Amino acid sequence: MSKRLFVKGNEAAAMGAVAAGCRYYFGYPITPQSDIPEYLSRELPKLNGEFIQAESEIGAINMLLGASATGVRAMTSSSSPGISLKQEGISYMAGAELPGVIINISRSGPGLGGIDASQSDYFQAVKGGGHGGYHIPVLAPNSVQEMYDLTLHAFDLADLYRTPVMLLGDSVVGQMKEALVPNPRPVRELPEKEWAVRGKGSAEQRVVKSLFLGDGELEAHNWRLHAKYQVMKEKECISEEFETADAKLIVTGFGSVSRIAQTAVAMAREEGLKVGLFRPVTLFPFPEKALAEAAGRAGRVLVIELNTGQMVEDVRLSVGAAAKVSFYGRPPGAGSLPSPEELLDVIRKNYDQAPQ
Amino acid sequence: MQQVFKRPQSLKDVQTHFCPGCHHGTIHRLVADAMDLHGVQERTIGVASVGCSVFLYGYFDIDVVEAPHGRAPAVATGVKRAKPDNFVFTYQGDGDLAAIGTAEIIHAANRGEDITVIFVNNTTYGMTGGQMAPTTLVGQKTSTSPYGRDKSKDGSPIRMAELMAQLGGVAYSARVAVDSPKHVLEAKKVIREAFGYQVQGRGFSFVEVLSACPTNWGMNPLKANARVGEEMIPYFQLGVFKKEEA
Ligand SMILES: Cc1ncc(C[n+]2csc(CCOP(=O)(O)OP(=O)(O)O)c2C)c(N)n1
Ligand code: SF4
């Protein structure tokens, strides 16, 4: 049995990457994620791996592109402004169907913004932040344990679907310390990387590219990518529910805010309010069906985010007319996260309006 | 009859899409020749850039990764670090390498990545229709410098081979041209030598090749070829600027 460790979320993600067999890391410093490159700059050389501090986030994502094209497991990490710079490379990787893991310990924006916890990169992460109309799987951990577990999962998804995968955390999950049991799960059955460049020898030439100029080639490519996203929607949704079975109000939120919301939901239960929590773990694919079911039973959904309203759009699309949706946002700037008491208050107000 | 001249093995037997009189085709040949000489074709991974050369996988019989505009040196860094036993080269135009990709080329060179960079300088952005490049000569008219490049406004043409030679990680840096048989033979020697540096694991090697773009210069192939010698070489001097001894 693995021993329990007491580590930061960022370290847990870096440990998860190493456990997943990632030996190549390319990055550029930015708060609040620099523990990741710091950890990997110490550990990867001991494992015959490579750590490169790139000249920029653009350099880093393209080094990841190059390494991934050879079939190895590789990773980069950054935070919001750096992720903006990586979007060009992410679009190219999505276009060329290259795996790779990108950790975004997001901070507040727009622009230079601040380094406090924020969820204002939801749109950028799940709607395809770069050009060309694509999606990448986005995973939203809410604990140190999940920083580890979901990083492992991210590498599997990347190889399985030949796609970049983003782990979307924020400074709360990145910087907090709690118990971690670093137990690498068995990996999923993964296909051979028959597309990876290797030096052709006497075999067929392999080309990794996103340029498709032949008649109908690009359209076919885009339909194929689209089909892949549909398979992900069928097979790869992850969500977590807490006391939703008899709930008359479903509270939902992702990542760090879901932890506070869960405490508030537990407090509401003690007051006798039938409230439940639904937490999407995958933000793309969004767990539409599971949410629609829980919301349909309750009739009312309260979305809580550390922004002015982004995931709430996907919630509305998922539940349609089956439930009434309201929103409570706390974008950064006030200097604090919402307290459980603050959220309990919001829950009480929304509960009173809930259809009885 | 003895055969004295043939297509390099690393080059596919296909027609190119390059315009008549374009030097990209000649340069492709020389690169393929160097691959053959060093026997690296089967372990080569080429990195294609954005520009008229993007289709190089259609001509070279090797594995290829395509890079975003300007990022080929970073992509090549990832490839080479993951697969140090492979031979890795990039092939980039002047818009690609000396404008949008300046950070990537300088830092890959400075880290001393064990890769080879073939830099094709035709003083213009070819593929997008002949706009001003960082290498456009002062006074040269292009579609975005219709009054001629103005030094006081647009700066001076960048001399990349000399710039590269200043960087600690660079083992080899040279400039050649392919406008005459004599220059082609010199270029052949230099590209072979640059490839040799990587084959021996001696660090970053860089070859700038002066090249004609008849289409965007608005010249016929012969005039364009002559311009390389008359206007480009006086400013972009040929030679080996750095050659680290073993
Ligand atoms: C980010 C980005 N900006 C601009 C372009 C458009 N573009 C395509 S090729 C090219 C110029 C290439 O010029 P050069 O590198 O000199 O190569 P040449 O075509 O002359 O061989 C540009 C600007 C692009 N593809 N990507
Ligand atoms: S546009 Fe210029 S660089 Fe491009 S193929 Fe034609 S001549 Fe060559």
Automatic annotation (TrEMBL), chain B:
Keywords: Oxidoreductase
Domain Thiamine pyrophosphate enzyme TPP-binding: from-to ranges: 63-209
Disordered: annotated span: 136-155
Entry-linked Pfam families: TPP_enzyme_C (PF02775)
GO terms classed as biological process: cellular respiration; small molecule metabolic process
SUPFAM superfamilies in the record: Thiamin diphosphate-binding fold (THDP-binding) (SSF52518)
Oxidoreductase is among the record's keywords: yes
InterPro entries documented for this protein: 2-oxoacid:Fd_oxidoreductase, THDP-binding, TPP_enzyme_TPP-bd
The keyword Calcium belongs to this UniProt entry's keyword annotation: no
Biased composition (Polar residues): 136-146
Taxonomic superkingdom: Bacteria
An MF annotation (GO) of this entry: thiamine pyrophosphate binding
Protein name: 2-oxoacid:ferredoxin oxidoreductase, thiamin diphosphate-binding subunit
Gene that encodes the chain: vorB
